[in-house]
C-alpha cells in the first residue's frame, strides 16, 4: 500500500510518502504564489525518486488546516482530484495535530498557528494525546489556557506568535512527515475517509469576503 499525504496550509508545503503506514520519504517546498506548480512537480519528483507513479497510490491525504485559506484549498483540491481519478480513499489530516512532537511528553504541549487578525489556532496535548479540539482563540483566551496548563509552546509562525507572547518561550516547529503519516493511518484504520471526494476543512474562521458580506 503506497500512500501520499500533502499539506500546503503553511508557508512551507510538505509531502510525505508512506508504505503500509511507514514513512519512506518526504520533501518540502515553498508554498508561495507558485505553490500549485511546485506541488505538482514536488509530488512527481518524490514519486519518481522512489520508482513510483500516481497509479501506484492506494490512498491519499491532505492537510485540512487550520492555516492559509488558499493553501488549505490547494492541498484539498489536489488530493481530491487524484482520489477521484484513481478511485482511492481520501483522508483529511489536521495541520495543527501534525505539529505534535513524536516524543511523548508528560508536560502539556500547546500547538499554535497565528490566525492574523482572528487570533490564533490552537490545540492542547499531553502524554501523546490531544486534550482539546482545534479552536480559534483570542489573545486573552490563549493566555488563560497557558496560565492554566503551563505548556511547552510550538508554532510554525514563530515571529507572529512571539509578538503575542513576548515573555514566553516559544519554539518553532513545522508539521512532522512522520506525524502526518501516523494521523493518516489512524484515520484510515477508523475508516475516517471518503471515496466520493468529501473532505471537511478546518477553516475555523470566516474569510475576509464572508466578513465583508455581513
Would you kindly provide a written description of the structure presented here, covering whatever features stand out?
Helix content is 33%, strand content 28%. The chain is an alpha/beta fold and 214 residues long. The protein has two domains: 2-95 and 175-208, ATPase, nucleotide binding domain (Nucleotidyltransferase, domain 5), CATH 3.30.420.40; 99-172, 2-Layer Sandwich (Nucleotidyltransferase, domain 5), CATH 3.30.420. The strands form two sheets. Strands 6, 7, 8, 9, 10 and 11 form a six-stranded mixed beta sheet that branches. A five-stranded mixed beta sheet has the order 3-2-1-4-5, with helices on both faces. The N and C termini lie far apart (47 Å). The relative contact order is 0.18.
What is the mean predicted local confidence, pLDDT?
94
Domains (count): 2
CATH domain class name of the largest domain: Alpha Beta
Global structural class = alpha/beta
CATH architecture of the largest domain: 2-Layer Sandwich
Q: Tell me the number of strands.
A: 11
CATH superfamily of the largest domain: ATPase, nucleotide binding domain
Write the CATH fold name of the largest domain: Nucleotidyltransferase, domain 5
Q: Give the helix level as a range of percent.
A: 25-40%
> What's the gyration radius in Å?
17 Å
Shape: globular
Largest sheet: 6 strands, mixed
Report the uncertain regions: none
The portion of residues forming beta strands comes to 25-35%
N-to-C CA distance: 47 Å
Number of helices: 6
Order of helices and strands: EEEHEHEEEEEHEHEHH
